[in-house]
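Apologies for my clumsy wording, but can you show me some protein sequence, whichever is easiest, together with the matching C-alpha cells, please?
=====
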Amino acid sequence: MSKLYAGLTILEIIAVAIKKEVEAAAFYQNLAARIPNPIIKERFLNLSKEERKHRALLQHEYQRLTGETKPPLPKADQTARDEFDIGAATIEEALLYAIQAERAAQKLYLTAAKTSTDTRGHQMLEYLVEFEKGHERQLKAELEFYRKSPLWFEDTEDLIHVGP
C-alpha cells in the first residue's frame, strides 16, 4: 500500500479520491482555457468532463456504502496536493504535471482496490485505474505532439476535426 494512504480506510480513500477528481476537473478546465486551438481545447474539456464523471461515480459508491451523501475529508496531510500555478506554467509543464497527477490517481485507485473487500467497489476502482491509464496515454500523446508542433496548440483558425 502506498505510504501516503497507509492507515486510511476505504471510505477515507474514496473521500480523498473525490477531492482529487474535483481538482483534476478544474485543472483540465483551466488548461483548456489557455489553449486557443479549438480541437486541442475540446480534448482538455473532455478530460475535465470525464473527471467530473469519476467524481460522481465515487460519490455514488460512497453513498452506497454509507448512506451518506458527502464524505468527510481525512486529515489534511492525507489530502495535501502540490501547488501548481497553471497560469504561470508553460503548456509543456502543465502536461507533465497532468501526467504525474494521472499516475498518482492510478496509485490511489490501486491502493483502494487492494483495501476494498466489496466486490462491486473493487471492480469500480479497477475500472478507474484503467480509465486514468487512458488519460495518461492521451496526455503523453499531447505532450509528444506539443514538443513537435507547439504552434499547433496556438492555432485559432476555424478548424474541422476529422479524427476520433
Notes: The chain has one domain: 3-74+89-150. The two ends are 37 Å apart (CA to CA). Residues 3-74+89-150 form a domain with the Ferritin fold (CATH 1.20.1260.10). The helical segments are 10-34, 38-66, 76-79, 91-115, 119-148.
